[in-house]
Write a structure and sequence with these properties.
The chain is of the alpha/beta class. It has one domain (about 45-160). It is built from eight helices and four strands, in the order H-H-H-E-E-H-H-H-H-E-E-H. Helix 1 crosses helix 2, helix 2 (about 20-25) crosses helix 3 and helix 6 (about 90-95) packs across helix 7 (about 100-105).
Length: about 160
């Protein structure tokens, strides 16, 4: 897993530096990931979502025992949301239908009225990746600050390609 995270971090640096590569990645992620040495089964579709300062995309991974340790390691702050969604179908439904209000309620954090949060649920055949805002060039949103405080980085999505 560590090498896949390193590859994704390297890819993000390239995406942030090259708008055309980023657009190609969003349009055809499997081809770019294959070039980076990440093998993805032909039966899996990869969808890429791009964050902006006003839009934050979060991925709800599959509830697989083999991934529980990876989620804990890569997304400790978001772990409570993921665990709650895995354990409570009603909560998961609320999270998918109204992510911002659901996250605010669970975390007690007030988020900007202008912030849009989208939550995507992975399936056995569809995996979601997020291209985050390059925080070296932009000011962090309230959700980004909350996630950084919780230890969430942009690497959480890559673990799901295994």
């Amino acid at each position: 897993m560590k090498s896949q995270i390193k590859n994704y971090e390297t890819l993000l640096e390239r995406l942030w530096a090259d708008e055309q590569l980023k657009n190609n990645f969003i349009a055809n992620p499997k081809a770019i990931l294959t070039e980076m040495g990440v093998h993805i089964s032909n039966s899996i579709t990869v969808e890429v979502h791009e964050d902006t300062l006003e839009l934050k995309n979060l991925v709800l991974p599959l509830n697989l025992e083999s991934q529980v340790g990876n989620v804990v390691e890569s997304a400790p702050g978001f772990q409570a949301v993921i665990q709650q969604a895995w354990q409570d179908e009603s909560f998961k439904s609320q999270l998918l239908q109204n992510p911002k209000a659901t996250i605010q309620k669970l975390t007690g954090t007030d988020l900007s009225d202008t912030l849009i949060i989208c939550v995507y649920e992975d399936t056995p055949t569809v995996k979601h990746l997020v291209v985050p805002v390059n925080t070296a060039n932009e000011e962090l949103s309230e959700l980004d600050l909350m996630m950084v405080a919780g230890g969430i980085g942009h690497t959480a999505g890559i673990i799901l390609l295994q």
